[in-house]
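re: the backbone from monday

yeah here it is again, tokenized this time
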């Protein structure tokens, strides 16, 4: 391109229009990028944040795996399961004072943290615990396994009776 052509293009607005259009494209691109990022963050905000915590139901095996009179602890679930004859029950091992894990004793349970004492049924007999240990529903699954549901608190003394 000769110098005269360049001067002509410049007077006609050629190079200047081209520069303007480049700046416009950059601005439009930046705007689109910002809008895209904002849309992405808004969609992330709208997406429900579900936390998958500890499952409330857990299977503990078949009834015949528990001998009559047995008391079996499930430390991860903080539950103790008892079998008395054909009756099964599940009691929480979480202290109702501040949530420490209670230990079984000859007469019931005791909490190592502040000394709460519970009888065998989980009722408070000493210490700062404000209420009894929770009892959980025990049920039988269609496949014949026992299942404890920690979401389902039942009155103390509630049992599942399984025909042997
Ligand atoms: S947490 Fe059990 S007595 Fe305080």
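seq for it, each position gets an aa:
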């Amino acid at each position: 391109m000769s110098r005269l052509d360049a001067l002509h293009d410049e007077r006609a607005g050629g190079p200047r229009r081209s520069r303007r259009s480049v700046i416009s494209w950059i601005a439009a691109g930046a705007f689109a990028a910002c809008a895209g990022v904002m849309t992405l963050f808004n969609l992330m905000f709208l997406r429900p944040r579900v936390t998958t915590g500890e499952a409330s139901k857990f299977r503990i095996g078949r009834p015949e795996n528990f001998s009559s009179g047995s008391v079996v602890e499930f430390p991860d679930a903080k539950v103790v399961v008892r079998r008395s004859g054909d009756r099964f029950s599940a009691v929480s091992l979480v202290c109702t004072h501040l949530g420490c894990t209670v230990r079984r004793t000859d007469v019931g349970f005791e909490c190592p943290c502040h000394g709460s004492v519970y009888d065998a049924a989980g009722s408070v007999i000493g210490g700062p615990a404000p209420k009894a240990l929770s009892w959980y529903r025990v049920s039988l699954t269609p496949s014949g396994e026992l299942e404890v549901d920690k979401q389902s608190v039942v009155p103390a003394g509630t049992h599942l009776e399984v025909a042997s």
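The chain has two domains: 3-46, 57-161. Residues 95, 97-98, 100, 111, 113-116, 127-129 surround FE2/S2 (inorganic) cluster (CB under 6 Å).
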